[in-house]
Amino acid sequence: MTIGGNDEASKAFKEFAEAILAAKDLEDHKRNELLEHLSFLAEQATTKKKSTVAKTVWTSFKDSVQVIASLATIYTQYGPVIERIFQ
Predict the structure, then answer these.
(1) Which of 27, 30, 29 is closest to 61 using CA atoms?
(2) pTM
(3) Residue 38 burial (CB count, 10 A)
(4) Secondary structure of 17-55 in the HEC alphabet?
(5) What does each C-alpha distance from 66 to 46, 49, 69, 77 come to in angstroms?
(6) Exposure string (b/e) for 13-28, b if CB count within 10 Å is 16 or more?
(7) Is 6 helix (H, G, I), strand (E, B) or coil?
(8) 3 - beta bridge partners?
(9) What are phi and psi of 42, to 5 degrees?
(10) pLDDT digits (tens, 9 = 90+) for 5-47
(11) 3 phi and psi, to 5 degrees?
């Protein structure tokens, strides 16, 4: 998957998805919520105009992954890549 020709963003979404799936410190409902948010964000990233809903979902996603130990490192590495999309 390439997000609007942006391989770096595509890699960021892929790495987040893999990390969420592999996270042992997530309950199933939280894992599903994060994957649903990530899927929505990946879809929104391909549009030219970013909706306020997408920006709100990004903020919620970001706030969640920053406090989950197994996802904090991946956020540090790839969060800024996705952040640029939704600024």
Answers:
(1) 30
(2) 0.88
(3) 21
(4) HHHHHHCCCCCHHHHHHHHHHHHHHHHHHCCCCCCHHHH
(5) 24, 26, 8, 11
(6) beebbebbeebeebee
(7) strand
(8) 6
(9) -60, -40
(10) 568 899 999 999 999 999 999 999 999 999 999 999 999 998 8
(11) -90, 105
